[in-house]
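We both want to read discrete structure tokens more fluently, so let's practise on a single case. Once you have written the record down, we can walk along the chain together.
***
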Amino acid sequence: MPDAPRRSKGLDGVFVGQSRISWVGGESGDLVYRGFDVRTLVPGVPYESVVHLLLHGEPPSADPSPEAVAALAKARPIPEPVLRAADAIPPGLPPLEALRTMLSLLGDGTAGYPPRLEDGYRLIARTPILLARYVRRSAGKPPVDPLAELSHAANYLWMLRGERPAPRVVAALEGYLDLLADHGMNASTFALRIVISTESDLYSAATAALGALKGPVHGGAPSRVADMLDAIGTPDRAEAWIDERLARGEVLYGFGHRAYKTDDPRGLLLHEIARTVADPVRLQLAEAVEAVALARLRAAHPGARLFTNVEFYSALVLEAIGLPRELFTPTFAVARTVGWTAHAIEQAGDNRLIRPDVEYVGAPKGRAWPRPLAGRP
């Protein structure tokens, strides 16, 4: 008899390879990009410099990275056939649904295997442009072109609103983009690396990654956090509301993480960012809900080591800078395009088709079809 197969539902504790891009210290509460603790990068390091670091492995010569600024500017013009196809998407869809199609449209046949840096810069530069263009068209507004003098973060807000954003709002979004740029072998990155391992192209892989990011247990929860805060309304209602939800076995979004068994450093930093831009009343409500939720969850699940995750204060930051909830997860994707690019290039550099086994536990071999088959004696 062969040895029983080693199973790991959800691939917990399974290493599928090695990476030099980022390290998630689940026990220690760390997130490291190419050797740099994110707590030393945020706030302060421009997103373009994080792009440079993740794609090239070393920090740039200046901030923001001259190389990344130039590459992103060069990549912004979108071919007219792609714009026409994107503009044919019916207005009024959830932006995340439209973005999934638009990422696919970026794959116009010019990107092959292995993925190239210029493919990645196009993905990073064009994703917010197509997204903002669609959002404005759905609102009956004309598209706004990027401005050469604005940063990646500032341009995203400019293209959405048609007005120059305040510096503190740009700084808050830049911190968010930095913190969400990469996070080890998460579900969307794993989906992307599987697609790249088949020797497919970056845009196909990014489309698959976005499909994974859409799920509420990966990237789709910040809007649900905001909905929860709305439903609770005031700090004095937090205990009763949370107790009622937990009694029904419902999920409290914004708490717990598969990797972190201590504080998520991104959540801590986003809490600090929220203090600079969020409405004080809304921040007070969120802090009260956080305290009650953690106390109740830890009482209900002793030893589970539950902490606030990145999505809780992401919701406060994103709503404070004026983004509607349907743009929360698409903005997560805007941030993560650089991580996806870095992982696609790394996967292709030492590739092997990712094909895990599954233990078959169905009916035993030997079953006969219950009816005579035509053409057989």
